[in-house]
Specification:
about 500 residues; Rossmann fold; Ribosomal Protein S5, domain 2; 22 helices; four-stranded mixed beta sheet; alpha/beta
């Protein structure tokens, strides 16, 4: 008798249906076909131990397990449960008509308990798309799958519970989750707030401009000036995620296995801060079975690179294309996978190896040319893709002890949301553009028009600073964002002047 169950494989951030067919016939040996990897092949030992532990038996006949489509590689341990149930059904040890109505996935331990799996959210979305009645999976993953409505999510702790459910011996109510309630309850919860930052008004302004237009930022300053502290507060002033963005973000973290047990929807913008020893593959994604890297885990959020010059140059250079295209393509001989990578890059660095170049009180002890060599670790093309270059100076004692009330993150975010609303209306007819930082060169020409005085100012700045064409576009984009924050329809002289002063590293003689 041929028994049929259904699972799913995950490629990129999308899932595709896998049909598991099991046939127990006369003969000997266990055969698994359909391009299974080692983790799938090893399931035989886990399945045999689990079903024996429950009092069932492994058939001493020829067992053929076919996983279709046969030309797609099957990877991971999540197929344990559908294969085990298929073997029991094919050998007439369990009797049910429900197996083909559910997507079934789960990794088995030797005593039959189920361990959590990765990629549950995209699998649940595919199950609903394929019109399955429900999804049977480990209970620890059930909250994540229950985000998807119109799908019965059945969480089980072990294979015995799954058997009892399918045979009708135990009724398990589908898990219900109010996605919107979870989303709105947690989307504004942040651990850090700008109200606790003393001084640094110019940096707060720069980060406000960056948040309003989705611009990339690099902060240059001595150790202890507050670069990391300010960067960690940036997500708290970004506009809240939309429900669609939250689902996109959750899918990526689900595929990467970063959600944790009993997790569900990610309602806050992610903040990722990898160490400078990170490899190229860990940053952009990849591997034999392509997995999302840090830039994709930062999708719809912030990627913070602390001590930027300490990162390997090859690691930084692989970010250049994703920064422009806002996605990353991982290509292998037989597969090509796209991961979204629409993130804000926030970087910080010391101005020199000793950290005290341009310090108001301490003297730089770097040798001649040391500052420039340090800065040269970051390529010009990468710096061109960073819109705002901001110098961070140490906070004075008077500012630190001041009792002046600071703006809260909520107050700053309200101004940011107003500016983003203007941009949403402006780019309503452009599907791939949602904020000023995403404008193409053609759009910049159409939207960021300046008067004659502005052109003279910009020409002077271009000549004196030696700016590239890309930097020219960046200044216009930032000027447009500053105008949006001011509620101005046109980019005025003061908006351009402020945008130009955010190009610190382009100033002639900055590192001489």
């Amino acid at each position: 008798m041929i028994a049929k169950t259904f699972g799913c494989s995950v490629s990129g951030v999308d899932a595709s249906l896998v049909t598991v067919e099991v046939n127990v016939i006369n003969g000997t040996s266990f055969y698994m076909v359909g391009l299974p990897d080692n983790a799938v092949k090893e399931s035989q030992q886990r399945i045999e131990s689990a079903i024996k532990h429950l009092g069932y038996h492994m058939p001493r006949q020829k067992v053929v397990v076919n996983m279709a489509p046969a030309d797609v590689r099957k990877e991971g341990s999540a197929y344990d449960l559908p294969i085990a149930l298929g073997i029991l059904a094919s050998s007439n040890q369990i009797h049910t008509d429900l197996l083909e109505k559910y997507v079934i996935l789960g990794e088995l331990s030797l005593n039959g308990e189920l361990r959590p799996i990765k990629g549950v959210l995209p699998i649940a979305i595919e199950a609903r798309k394929q019109k399955f009645k429900g999804f049977v999976l480990p209970k620890k993953n059930a909250s994540e799958a229950a985000i998807v409505n119109n799908l019965d999510v059945i969480g089980v702790d072990n294979i015995k519970e799954a058997i009892d459910f399918f045979e009708g011996n135990k009724k398990i109510s589908p898990l219900q989750v109010d996605t919107r309630d979870i989303f709105f309850e947690t989307q504004n919860e942040y651990d850090a707030d700008f109200s606790s930052v003393q001084g640094q008004e110019n940096i707060k302004r720069a980060l406000m401009v960056a948040a309003a237009g989705g611009h990339n930022v690099i902060m240059i300053g001595p150790p202890g000036a507050g670069k990391t502290m300010l960067a960690k507060r940036l997500p708290s002033i970004l506009p809240p995620l939309s429900l669609q963005e939250a689902l996109e973000t959750t899918k990526i973290h689900s595929v990467a296995g970063k959600l944790g047990e009993n997790a569900n929807l990610i309602a806050r913008r992610p903040f990722r801060s990898p160490h400078h020893t990170i490899s190229d593959v860990a940053l952009v994604g990849g591997g034999g079975n392509p997995q999302p890297g840090e830039i994709s885990l930062s999708h719809n959020g912030v990627l913070f690179l602390d001590e930027l010059p300490e990162f390997k140059r090859t690691v930084l250079e692989v970010m250049r294309q994703p920064l422009e295209e806002r996605r990353v393509t991982i290509s292998r001989a037989k597969v090509s996978v796209d991961f979204p990578a629409n993130f804000m890059l926030i970087a910080s660095m010391n101005p020199c190896p000793c950290g005290f170049y341009n310090h108001p009180e301490k003297e730089c002890v770097c040798p001649p040319g040391g500052v420039q060599r340090y800065l040269n670790k970051i390529s010009g093309p990468l710096l061109d893709r960073i819109d705002l270059h901001v110098e961070v100076t140490p906070v004075s004692f008077d500012e630190m002890t001041s009792e002046r009330k600071n703006q809260t993150s909520e107050e700053i975010r309200n101004d940011v949301i107003k500016a983003r609303t203007l941009q949403s209306e402006r780019f309503n007819n452009f599907e791939q553009v949602h904020c000023n930082a995403m404008m193409s060169s053609q759009l910049v020409k159409e939207i960021c028009k300046i008067d004659q005085q502005g052109k003279v100012l910009l020409k002077t700045a271009m000549e004196k600073l030696g700016l590239s064409a890309r930097a020219y576009d960046r200044i216009l984009k930032v000027g447009r964002t500053i105008a949006d924050l001011a509620g101005s329809e046109n980019i005025k002289m003061e908006h351009l002047a402020e945008a130009i002063q955010f190009r610190s590293l382009d100033r002639e003689g900055w590192a001489s």
